[in-house]
Amino acid sequence: MTVGTSSVAETKGEREVSEKSQIDEAYSLLDALVAPERVVQLAILGVTLHIAFTELYDLNSEYRLVFRNGAIVAISILMGAYSRYRSSGWNPLVLPKFETVYLMYLPFMTLLLFDRSHATINCSLILNCVEMPLMFKLPMQGIFVLLSESKAELNDKLAQLGAIIINYLAYTLLAKASHLKSLDTVDCNLFSILLTNVLYIHDSESIYFQVLKETLSAFLIIVGVNYVADILLGSIMNAYLKSAVIFSSFAVGFPTLVRHLLKIDGQDPLEWLIDYIMTSDTRQNLLIIWLTSLLVLIPNVLILKSNITLNSSRKVWHFLILLLITKPFQMDPNFVKISLAGSIVLFLSVEYLRYLKLEPVGGYIDSKLRLFADFRDEKGPIIISYIYLIVGIATPLLINDSPVGLISLGVGDSLASIIGGKWGKKFWAGTNKTMEGTIAFIGSTTVTAIIFKQYLGYFQNISYSNLSVVCTLTGLLEGNSIINDNIMIPAFMLIAEQLFTNRLITT
């Protein structure tokens, strides 16, 4: 018996060594780095980084500090990856995903162009992706903040250390909820940084930010309470009754918490919102148009779902949001921002009910949303597409009053997917995306951006030629990348738009 067990162990060990040898022989780090699609992505990101460095580095010390912090973060991540790669016996499986480059690029460029005052703490949050024991990682992030050249006082730096803990907890919860399938490590890190900024780092007095922050806080609190309740009730209630109790807790607790946390001008938020809408004919008309459109289109799309492709039915929502936000944002931007901020948390609430299939509505919501789920949504327990869509469209509008999310997702991504899927023949190397789809993206976004500039008053500080460059770079990046378009494309297009404006923000 002992000999047999030993033989099995030896056979298994030999097989693992053989498989590792095959991986090592088949894998070439150089070949991976010079893969055509990766070269294109790195070239586009490198061009924008070069433009930012050339135009901004010498402007003032604040910009130089951001660049230095970004360089330290990039070097730290690369050194950590190299150390793991070497200590594993050059096993390529331990290397970080290529998409980690976006985890460094997107937050860094957003901070550089729009939020330099919080650059140091956010750069430290990026370091959460470094693979090392927690007892070393969190102190490393803290040391990065405390020893930075930031002008912040020591008390402010100490207060910022709380963001590191919140960011780690957010990442852990997202990873657990998604099983690192619906969301991978890059997604979880990006969203944890975003959540930490909204909940802890930023403190804007704008109404739409307060709506987003406090409703999101209320949502997370009631989710936490229900998580504990789920554990306690699991042994004393059947599944249906427990589900109904948790649903009731959410339905009552969430709005109650919102009314407790969110005070606008000292008023109850519901009373303030009613008064805010009723005192403006424009807001009343916009609300009626939005509600009517949803009541008419949602049933019709569900009815016609069987007669159109999955891809086309999904893109209907992209076109719909484009139509429902583009002009209203010009009419009453603050109302649209408040609506978008509330919609983000509303979408999260819908997904929460669907995720747990809470009775009596969770199962029904799940059956309807599954009709529009694609391969990304099927990878794990979370349906991410519609949440990514609202975040991708809302973020540029909330950060910089920019419609690039509407244009890139409502027009470019939609037409690229439809035209590429139906008529595309020539594929970009290493992807399932076609050159015909990329041409459709570039052409449609360029034309739409020009119309927005000429007739709707957007893009006032950027020339027509620079707009076309922004759309071209975004289209090429979209065609050669595999990271989720609904997040990456609007974020990159916002960065490119700001870089190519005739007047960069320098204050």
Topology:
Layout: H1 2-26, H2 29-33, H3 36-56, H4 61-87, H5 100-114, H6 119-126, H7 134-146, H8 154-178, H9 185-201, H10 207-233, H11 239-261, H12 269-278, H13 281-304, H14 310-331, H15 333-356, H16 362-369, H17 375-378, H18 385-400, H19 404-423, H20 435-455, H21 464-480, H22 485-499
Helix pairs in contact: 3-21, 4-5, 4-6, 5-6, 5-9, 5-22, 6-7, 7-8, 8-9, 10-11, 10-15, 13-14, 14-15, 14-19, 15-16, 15-18, 18-19, 18-22, 19-20, 19-22, 20-21, 21-22
N-to-C SSE string, H for helix and E for strand: HHHHHHHHHHHHHHHHHHHHHH
Distance between the termini: 77 Å
How many helices does DSSP assign? 22
Radius of gyration over C-alpha positions, nearest whole angstrom: 24 Å
Mean pLDDT: 87
- Fraction of residues in H or I helices: over 70%
**Total domains:** 3
The biggest sheet, with number of strands, parallel, antiparallel or mixed sense and barrel status, is: none
| Low-confidence runs of at least 5 consecutive residues | 1-25
Structural class: mainly alpha
EC number: 2.7.1.108
GO molecular function: dolichol kinase activity
Keywords: Endoplasmic reticulum, Kinase, Membrane, Transferase, Transmembrane, Transmembrane helix
Protein name: dolichol kinase
